[in-house]
Amino acid sequence: MNGSPDNTGEDDVVIARIVKPHGIRGEVACDIETGFLERFEIDGPVKVRMRDGAILNPIIEDRRFVKNRILLKFEGYDTMDAARGLVGGLIVINASDRMALDQDEFYEYELVGLEMVTAEGRRCGRVTGLISTGAAPVLVIEGDDGGEILVPFTDAICPDVDLNSKRITVNPPEGLLELNTKPRGDSLDAGKARVGS
User: Fold this and answer.
1) Which residue from 33, 31, 30 is spatially nearest to 3, judged by alpha carbons?
2) pLDDT digits (tens, 9 = 90+) for 11-64
3) What is the Cα gyration radius of the chain?
4) Which parts of the chain are beta strand (E)?
5) Which domains, ranges and CATH numbers included, belong to the chain?
6) At a CB cut-off of 8 Å and minimum separation 6, what does 29 contact?
7) Listed residue (53, 43, 132, 131) closest to 92, CA to CA
8) Per residue in 129-164, pLDDT tens?
9) For residue 142, how many C-alpha atoms fall within 13 Å in the half-sphere facing its CB?
10) What is the C-alpha separation between 166 and 163, in angstroms, rounded?
11) Looking at beta carbons, which pairs linking 58-67 to residues 24 or more positions away fall under 8 Å?
12) CB crowding 85-109: b at 16 or more within 10 Å, else e
């Protein structure tokens, strides 16, 4: 579930978010929003949409992965101050350039907002995001009581995703929904799950 249309550009899909400068050489640390890391193996310019709506087209000079982030060095950005000017920018692609998905794969933005119900029809809440755990992605559900429920997004636990009905059917093991309920306010940062863009 990667890549999501962003309200800063209707036809854009975000593949990374520039979050901070890294070191003194002009590198920037980026949160990755795509499961297709080859998106960063390009020799030409990338499209960066800044907070003020400006579009930049810097060329990737170097790249390396550190933990769950990618460090990018752009041509002409050779100092920490220069890199700081890119913070907040979104690295985007055109929606028409999204990777094709398999039948049982979904973009994260397609899942956010879906209602989650049990096989018996009991409403659990609404999907607000995903967390990448290194294994199966985890759906973040805002429960009807205002709490947060964490549900592994696996075929066994979430056997049916109906985008037309805007509904995910959950078949949780006994106690899962109660065990993974968190009070509102302890929200985890919704990460990404490999599926799209």
Assistant:
1) 33
2) 788 889 999 999 999 999 999 888 778 888 887 899 999 999 999 999 999 999
3) 18
4) 4-6, 9-22, 27-32, 47-49, 55-56, 60-66, 69-74, 90-94, 115-118, 123-131, 138-143, 148-152, 160-162, 167-170, 181-182
5) 4-96 (2.40.30.60), 108-182 (2.30.30.240)
6) 18, 19, 20, 21, 22, 66, 69, 70, 71
7) 53
8) 887 666 678 889 998 777 888 888 888 999 999 989
9) 12
10) 5
11) 58/86, 62/27, 65/37, 66/29
12) ebeebbbbbeeeebbeeeeebbbbb
Residue 152 is which amino acid? P
Which amino acid is it at 27? E
Look at the block and give the residue holding tokens 């037309």: 164
Termini Cα distance of the chain: 8
